[in-house]
Amino acid sequence: MVANRLPDKPPYLIIIAGPTAVGKTSIAIDVAKYFNSEVVSADSRQFYKGLCIGTAAPSAEQLALVKHHFVGHLNPEVYYNVSRYEQDVLRLLEQMFKNNNIAVLTGGSGLYIKAVTDGIDDLPDVDPDIRENLQLISKNEGLPALRRMLLMYDPVYTQKVDLSNPNRIIRALEVCIQTGRPYSSQLLNNKLVRNFNIIKIALNLSRDQLHMRINDRVDQMIEQGLIEEARSFYPLKHLNSLNTVGYRELFDYFDQKITLDEAIEKIKTSTRRYARRQITWFNKDKDFHWLPPDSETVITYLNTIINKES
């Protein structure tokens, strides 16, 4: 069943969020098909070409069902950040709403979703030399060195940021060094008002069910050729786009630091931890309505909200 376009209603951006492996892609496709709309990805790992298996990017069959945006549109070498994503998505939505007043945004990258719904800070572009130097520190001295630098430059943000995420730490350090002011002092405190309505849905399963899905997905990725995919990107392992779960563990295997079995188990463990962080992030936003990953349930809820607000 497909809903007719709703010409008498304001534009709606439907957010389908949740932890990895919960089933966001298939639900988002079903919702987009129902509203005769398109899908905008908010999974920062899926932006890069070729990283298909390791990021669980939509399959060719899924991409053929509904038009997708921001999937495999960047080369891994390209520097891309959340601020640019916000502006790119807002421009896209402006065009999409001319043809359909429903758009679907899905993914597990909470900061990227927040940028679209609430706005992101207008922070400066950074001198490439600063970025290169920080990346060298990350490569040669590791995450502890970045943490020590951030504590020195911005102790307030050190208490807030995910200290296991080098990309977030490097971005904060870039701004601190470029501007001479703490990153935390330059962040927005108020949400921006968008010219479209936003409905936020987060999908989840029981802990045991989600962990089972994650473990099964990793096994399927290995069967589908994740090892070969990771090996093809091994020469680019220093890039931020490759510093992600599924690839960095296999890079350690290629470097003979761990066995293949250990790498696979580490991928599963890291993915479960990542899912917990995602759930924590979305739980902090009380505008999210939590639902099981069932298309009929999600579409029924959406119709209730849209009809109620009309």
Tally the beta strands: 6
User: What do we call the CATH topology of the largest domain?
Assistant: Rossmann fold
Biggest β-sheet strands, sense, barrel: 6 strands, parallel
Q: Percent range for helical residues?
A: 40-55%
Q: How many domain units?
A: 2
Put simply, the count of helices is 13
CATH architecture of the largest domain: 3-Layer(aba) Sandwich
Strand content: 5-15%
User: Could you state the CATH homologous superfamily of the largest domain?
Assistant: P-loop containing nucleotide triphosphate hydrolases
Highest CATH level, the class of the largest domain = Alpha Beta
Mean pLDDT level:
92
Shape label: globular
Summarize the topology.
Layout (H helix, E strand, L loop, with lengths): L11 E6 L6 H11 L4 E3 L18 H6 L2 E2 L12 H15 L5 E5 L3 H9 L9 H14 L1 H11 L1 H4 L7 H14 L17 E7 L3 H18 L1 H7 L15 H7 L5 H25 L4 E3 L3 H15 L1
Parallel strand pairs: 1-4, 1-5, 2-3, 2-4, 5-6
Helix pairs in contact: 3-4, 5-6, 5-8, 6-8, 9-12, 11-12
Characterize the structure shown.
By secondary structure, the chain is an alpha/beta fold. 50% of the residues lie in helices and 8% in strands. It is built from 13 helices and six strands. The chain has helices at 24-34, 60-65, 82-96, 110-118, 128-141, 143-153, 155-158, 166-179, 207-224, 226-232, 248-254, 260-284, 295-309; strands at 12-17, 39-41, 68-69, 102-106, 197-203, 289-291. The protein has a six-stranded parallel sheet, with helices on both faces. Strand 2 (39-41), helix 2 (60-65) and strand 3 form a beta-alpha-beta unit. The chain starts with 11 loop residues before the first strand and ends with a helix.
